[in-house]
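USER: I would love a firmer grasp of how sequence relates to backbone shape in proteins. This is the protein in question:
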Amino acid sequence: MESRRVLRIADLGAGTGILGALLADRFLKAQIDLFEWHSAACADLRESLDQWPFSERLDLIEGDWFEQLPMYRPKGGYDLVVTNPPFWVDQRPSIRSDRAQARHMDSEADWIRWLRSAAEAVAPGGRLCWVASAEPIAGEIDALPTELRLLRRVWIRAKPQKPRIRRLEEWIRPRSVVSSDTDLGPVVEQEWTLYEANGTPGNDYKKLLRDFLPSLSSQESEPPPINPNCSK
């Protein structure tokens, strides 16, 4: 992605700002809008912004982002839109209201609305990246503008031979409406495994975090644990 100019990035449903922090660390000339409507998450995020060295490039936009996004979206759209939405629809929601809001949609229509709004905020030449369950929701692809093209899909497994639990997708809005799939090359399909069969962190997980946690270069160090059974 172009890094010689100021990139405009949006994180929709930013939570406590982890993705925003990682993006600010990677793209040193990026201005990042963090959209979040959960008051407790916003409180934690404001506290973090007081401590992060790159906080001047991060703007917290609190409230219903469906309403806020049209007002804050730059002319032409964002260069990058990322989102880790509450993608569970059919599963039983948590009895804790904060977890239920962070992890569950009320209906498939809500998920489609979320995805469509995120896609429409992407500028020509920009990209949309999202995290979702391994099983697509009906009508998901139809929600995207027809000119968007899939660049990469990464499947996540907790352990070898276990079912896929997540997928990461990266889409691009070509600068030209006449761009074809052949102009962009074949879709890259990958698969990452978080843990080895014996429960130790896998190489895919270590590689994913090594740029942000230099201690992982030491073979004696282990990355922080992830619970593969958690809802998000």
Notes: The longest strand covers residues 122-133.
